[in-house]
Design a protein that fits this description.
It is built from four helices and 21 strands. With 350 residues, the protein is of the alpha/beta class. The chain has one domain. The strands form three sheets. Strands 2, 3, 5, 6, 10, 11, 13, 17 and 19 form a nine-stranded parallel β-sheet that branches. A six-stranded antiparallel β-sheet has the order 1-8-9-15-16-21.
Length: 350
């Protein structure tokens, strides 16, 4: 029974869902001296990635090229969901059908309000159930008092489908850290190649009493970037067809709907490099010095630059967009039963 009257529905429903998640997390390495100096020297490249250099006194790094930058953590999450439903409903309509439906609905409402759950109530409910037949008969008779009775059988078939997908991808930079109680010095000597001899610090921090960055070629103090990207989409569709046949004729109706949409968002967050010296900060480069998305903080800053000096800021940024659209339509048609009978047959029956 459905809707409180005479109606029978048969259908099915399916739900399918998937979830995926993956991540990469970097753990920092640490090299330190608890009471003295820390000196790191390489014949070619000195590369510190997502790690820490710590000394109670001085930290010194010497190589053809010196790079102190960040390690990249990543994460990915995605989800998909699909839902499908379909069914068939058989019911009554028309004056007689509506009267029967209303009568049964009222009978059921009275019965449900009885409550209690004891044996006497159960017995009364059994008597009331037997009275349903009489109720239906009285309702049908009442509907026919006004003239020609009308009753129709309705059959409707429908189905719907919906799906959604979403994903999020993130990158997070884990910068390096240099801490010295005395002086932090990094020297890039070069190899003789045109592009060698660079000191590059990206998305990392250097903190000391004095900081000295000395490069045969370039000194680059740069930012790194965190990213967050989300993608989502959805779609849905539904369709139904109904047919009715009764004393007043027959009818047919159909409808359908379709919708889909998507949404995207991209965010960029900057991680600055910080050079913090409680006393002095010295930058010496034979070529250019680039300070982009970085800060140099000291009581005294000394710079000797053989090429160009570039100082620039970087911005966080978020871009998002969403679209949704839908369309639908339907029709219905009815024809009286007498219009379906040929004129001669109608006169003969008359």
């Amino acid at each position: 029974m459905a809707g409180g009257g005479i109606a029978v529905s048969v259908g099915s429903s399916k739900l399918a869902r998937t979830d995926q998640e993956s991540s990469v997390t970097n753990n920092a390495s640490t090299i330190g001296s608890l009471s003295g100096n820390l000196t790191v020297q390489a014949g070619n490249n000195l590369h510190v990635t997502g790690s820490d250099l710590i000394a109670a006194k001085n930290v010194t790094g010497i190589a053809a090229n010196v790079t102190i930058d960040s390690a990249t953590d990543t994460s990915h999450q995605s989800q998909t969901q699909q839902t499908s439903k379909s069914g068939v409903t058989l019911g009554l309509s028309g004056a007689v059908g509506d009267a029967i439906n209303n009568a049964i609905s009222e009978t059921q409402a009275v019965r449900n309000s009885a409550g209690g759950g004891n044996d006497r109530a159960a017995a009364l409910h059994a008597i009331a159930a037997a009275g349903d037949v009489a109720t239906v008969g009285l309702a049908a008779a009442g509907a026919m008092k006004g003239g020609t009775p009308s009753i129709a059988i309705q059959v409707s078939v429908g189905s719907s489908h919906s799906s959604s997908q979403s994903s999020e991808d993130q990158t997070m930079q884990r910068g390096s850290s240099v801490q010295a109680g005395g002086t932090a010095t990094f020297i890039a000597t070069g190899t003789g190649a045109p592009d060698s001899g660079n000191v590059t610090i990206a998305g990392s921090d250097v903190t000391a009493s004095d900081v000295a960055l000395i490069a045969k070629n370039q000194v680059n103090l740069l930012n790194t970037t965190n990213t967050d990207s989300t993608r989502s989409s959805n779609s849905s569709s539904s369709a139904s067809v109904g047919v009715s046949f009764g004393t007043n004729g027959f009818g047919i109706s159909a409808s359908m709907q379709n919708a889909h949409g998507d949404g995207n968002s991209d965010a960029v967050m900057q991680n600055n490099t910080h050079i913090n010296a409680s006393n002095s900060a010295t930058i010496i480069s034979g070529g250019d010095t680039n300070i982009v998305g970085a800060g140099v903080n000291a009581n005294r800053v000394v710079a000797d630059i053989g090429g160009n000096l570039t100082i620039a800021s970087v911005q966080d940024m978020t871009v998002s967009a969403a679209h949704q659209s839908s369309a639908g339509g339907g029709f219905s048609a009815r024809r009286r039963l007498q219009d379906c009978v040929p004129p001669l047959q109608r006169r003969a029956s008359a």
